[in-house]
Amino acid sequence: MTYGTVEPFFHQGGFVRVVQKFGGSSVADAESIKRVAKRIVDTKEQGNEVTVVVSAMGDTTDELLDLAQRVSPKPRSRELDMLLSAGERMSAALLAMAINDLGHTARSFTGSQAGVITTAKHGDARIIDITPGRIETALGDGDIVIVAGFQGVSQSTKDVTTLGRGASDTTAVALASALKADYCEIYSDVDGVFTADPRVVPGAQQIPEIAFEEMMELAANGAKILHLRCVEYARRENVPVHVRSSFSDKPGTWLKDASDIKKKESGMENPIITGVAQDKALAKVTVVDVPDRPGEAAQVLETVAGAGINIDTITQNQSVSDDTTAITFTVPQGDLTKALDALAAARESIGFSKTLSDDSVGKVSIVGVGMRTTPGVAATFFKALADADVNIQLISTSEIRISVVIAEGDVDKAVRAAHTAFGLDGSDAAVVYAGTGR
Amino acid sequence: MTYGTVEPFFHQGGFVRVVQKFGGSSVADAESIKRVAKRIVDTKEQGNEVTVVVSAMGDTTDELLDLAQRVSPKPRSRELDMLLSAGERMSAALLAMAINDLGHTARSFTGSQAGVITTAKHGDARIIDITPGRIETALGDGDIVIVAGFQGVSQSTKDVTTLGRGASDTTAVALASALKADYCEIYSDVDGVFTADPRVVPGAQQIPEIAFEEMMELAANGAKILHLRCVEYARRENVPVHVRSSFSDKPGTWLKDASDIKKKESGMENPIITGVAQDKALAKVTVVDVPDRPGEAAQVLETVAGAGINIDTITQNQSVSDDTTAITFTVPQGDLTKALDALAAARESIGFSKTLSDDSVGKVSIVGVGMRTTPGVAATFFKALADADVNIQLISTSEIRISVVIAEGDVDKAVRAAHTAFGLDGSDAAVVYAGTGR
């Protein structure tokens, strides 16, 4: 059988060098580990060089966090990293054992042994460099390499670091780049990237190929398939990424450079819009009567950001009556109170009159490189929303994205309306979307 | 309070450098870990430099072994070591967290980070060298060092190795030697070394000080307090070892070079015999009519040893009737069948007539350096056994030990008889002996 992992256009010689990443839900128990081992061996037996990045089993990381909490209310991050990194170490060793039983030789490596060099920021370290000497040696010996994801070693302190939740994807892409792999496969419990969340849009279709920049916009605007950092890394290093399910053999979604995407190949009409993303649980804050002087807006936003709050969609409107402005932005619902408190504390110094807030708004974004060359996309989008009786509160755009902030209760119907308006509805309903497995 | 860890005769300057080892039962859960952390901090606050070796929490190692079994019937040892070593890594990190909460800085290190260099024999690696550079740096910074026990890194392959079950004790003693520590404390759930197993002899007394060679004889003849390897290492490197309970503050038993043991100090009369050890669950095998030619005995023993069976007490008797001999030895009860099968297979080539066996014998050993200079010890021992109506089947001796093989059912009364005969009975009954915690 083929997983589409040997598509000819990737061949660069006698074999393909591939990096595969399996999430925690794919190795949740002994049986899952054996099944994944079989899949890895199949890829190897197709003549490929295989390096695998694995996450911790199922809920291991959360269980270790609970254990840490029972021992220490606020565990030191260096020690927390030492504790948590054990999870991937265990799953990597177990996966290697299962592969060895299938007649192949697998060698597991910790992040440190794999040469994953990071910054010293425990719990959220960044990959500085990868020196895959031991991996190259193992691959040279014809072995299958298993790397514990999510971890590395600090360049400065030589201590064990973790890269933050979900960073096993980034580890895989970074390794693929360092190993000059032909591509990277991210296995989870979803079939790939869809034109919309199938739980919301039954007619949502799987996207065969998507441009890195489109995936970045989707990830940044609510799509939970891949972490933004991973997509950014793949784009920067131009590593083709195949997002697919470890529970089926169906091809998934390929992330590629826009120039590598062959049109018409997918069987769908070339869509102007590639996908519709949604982000619920947002809150809207409007700061009224901000003196319209340079730097005032910056003060407002810095005040909120200073409270560690992630600010999204920002708009500023000149007041017609006097020379003040109103600044409006969105924040995660859970951060609304914190944001309002921070603003109240800075009210005197900034000199605005009051704040207005709405604790239940959402965002709907349409994304597609086709937008660049197609006029009237915004008009089509807004008309679809109007026909669906959805009132637009804020608008923000990028070169390949248009986002609207609307009432939280309108998000689902807005997504469906946009999906239909841009001809993305498929004939047969997509499989049920089961979360990201990360 | 004092744990006796700062006894003046150990002072070698302004502070004492100590290595403490805590077994799995001492760190079985979050509460135990916090309690151990408190004890470590107390030692530190007495002005000591503290390095701690910790085992995996409670049954973690067995649980990981079960998990491995579910994934692979015969896991490759390299991967099993990668898996199992995660257990100590977790307990070390958790212990460091708990210490940090008490206002001290603790740094946990894996065996590899701690510089524990071993052979490449996975599952049963031996320590070749310890390069404690990172530990020295941490101690120099005033930190408390926590080292994951039971593990190291292979000098040749750079892979993670484990030292075999119970080897955390050996790790601690080896570290104490490499760090030139003043002494090493082994904490478990027993109060120390007793003159006999208190479960058998209510009047057994704790031994304040015992010579390395005596402890080696006790460990080699059934005492489960410390692993023989650990005691051998301590003796070779002359590292004083303090065996004590992590559940009380009472001083335990000091293992020292015989020349460092101050007589009369203990309050007991200087005993000729330091302790009585017992070893049940043995089987006795007699090979009859072995041709009395050089090398025949060796053939018999090699045949059994070749089956991977550990042979104990060996005796050979010249037959009076003809020129054949009978060779008798003991093996663990569980290995009896295997031993008899191996012998049966080699019967022709060796040329003996038959084997006799007894599947329920035991061994009682009296140990004491006092033996060297005291005549009549054997006579006293044998008379005590005779008075107790215990029939001696085999006898073996060393310079400081006399062992007898007897019926398994006679072991307990033989131990009590010997204990009384050599004046070891204490006035007040010892605390109940609670296993070794390893």
From TrEMBL, chains A, B:
Stored InterPro entries: AceGlu_kinase-like_sf, ACT-like_dom_sf, ACT_Aspartokinase, ACT_dom, AKii-LysC-BS, Asp/Glu/Uridylate_kinase, Asp_kin_monofn, Asp_kinase
Recorded superkingdom: Bacteria
A molecular function (GO) term: ATP binding
Pfam family, one: ACT_9
PROSITE patterns in alphabetical order: ACT, ASPARTOKINASE
CDD domains for the chain: AAK_AKii-LysC-BS, ACT_AK-LysC-DapG-like_2, ACT_AKii-LysC-BS-like_1
Annotated binding of ATP, by residue: 21-24, 199
Positions of substrate binding: 61, 88
Keywords recorded for this protein, A-Z: Amino-acid biosynthesis, ATP-binding, Diaminopimelate biosynthesis, Kinase, Lysine biosynthesis, Nucleotide-binding, Transferase
Limits of the ACT domain: 285-369
SUPFAM superfamilies reported for this sequence: ACT-like, Carbamate kinase-like
EC number: 2.7.2.4
UniProt entry tagged with the keyword Transmembrane: no
Enzyme class: transferase
Reaction(s) this enzyme catalyzes, per UniProt: L-aspartate + ATP = 4-phospho-L-aspartate + ADP
GO cellular component assignments: cytosol
Function: Catalyzes the phosphorylation of the beta-carboxyl group of aspartic acid with ATP to yield 4-phospho-L-aspartate, which is involved in the branched biosynthetic pathway leading to the biosynthesis of amino acids lysine, threonine, isoleucine and methionine.
Family, as annotated: Belongs to the aspartokinase family.
Name used for this protein in its record: Aspartokinase
